[in-house]
Amino acid sequence: DVKNVLLLKDQSEKRRKEIADRVRIGRSRKGELLQADSQLATVEATLLNAEGLRKESLKKLAGLTGLSDSDIQMPQEINSNEGLQTLQDYLKMAEERPDLVIKKNKLEMAHLDVTSSKRNHFPTLDLTSNYYLKERTGSLKNSDWDVGVSLSVPLFEGGATEASVRESVAKKMEAQYSVNDQSRKIQSEVAVKYEAAQKFVDQLKTQSRALSLAKANYDETLKDFRLGLVTNLDTLSALNSYLDAKRTYDRLRLSSMLALELLNTSAGKRP
Fold first, then answer.
1. pLDDT for res 152
2. pLDDT tens, position by position, 194-228
């Protein structure tokens, strides 16, 4: 915005100089010079306000990042080459969001717990073996190894096992509800952020055309003024309309970039 106001100041100074030259040779009225002086004074006040806001923003940024003002490098130009993809692309990306993946992993663990609890209903068969490094005594002294098989049938543990199964099933349902709830929230968040980004994209197209028309109108009005077809007030009005359109376009452009970053963050593309 400071750069745009500086551009307006530069154009206003040129207008003021041109009017002053015309007043000296009698081609313009002194009132037109006063109009140009008023325009320039207004622009200078606007520039002071814009520079003040810039310094305030730098202080806030320094406070957030821990950097000093001198460490913060302001870009000469801000561009974004990243376009807007389809909503389905962002929804697909959102399926890999870390918070959702964690909940899905917990659901998988709960499912394994249910399977493990159900297996406690089944008999268990254990195979054990031993190898003896020292000589044994008694009837087994000629054997340095043995193998044993044990079968365990949980005849009197069915109630405890069933209770454990029900508890595991309840935890699995809770985990499933948590996944579904988080998934819906993410989808809704992504859809809202996508609509906001799409809105700025559409507005940029319209504002770009408005900016081109405002610039063409100013150029034509300036030519007409030099031919004596319009007044200086008409020229200043066209200049202000052009710079207002440019400032609006740049603000929309930056808002569009911010909306895209917020969308990428919601979709999990940004950390």
1. 75
2. 999 999 989 988 999 999 999 999 999 999 988 88
DSSP label at residue 119: G
Count of CA atoms in the C-beta half-sphere (13 A) of 240? 13
| Percent above pLDDT 90 for the chain | 40
Question: How many other C-beta atoms are found inside a 10 Å radius of the C-beta of residue 207?
Answer: 20
**Average pLDDT of the chain, as a whole number:** 86
In which element (H, E) is residue 41 found? helix 30-65
Spell out where the chain has E strands. Answer: 124-131, 145-152
Residue 72 has pLDDT above 80, yes or no: no
Q: Locate 227 and state its tokens.
A: 């031919």
Q: Hey, what long-range contacts does 201-207 have (CB within 8 A, 24 or more apart)?
A: 201/84, 201/256, 203/252, 203/256, 204/249, 204/252, 204/253, 204/256, 207/245, 207/248, 207/249, 207/252
**Distance, CA of 124 to CA of 117 (rounded, Å):** 13
160 or 176: which carries more pLDDT confidence? 176
Task: Report whether pLDDT(33) > 70.
Answer: yes
Secondary structure (3-state) at 122: coil
Q: Which residues of 66-81 are buried (b: 16+ CB within 10 A; e: fewer)?
A: eeeeeeeeeeeeeeee
**CA pair distance 59, 72, nearest whole angstrom:** 10
Among 190, 201, 194, smallest CA distance to 253 is for 201
Residues 6+ apart with CB under 8 A from 235: 15, 218, 221, 222, 225
**Would you state the structure tokens that stand for residue 119, as one six-digit string?**
């297996």
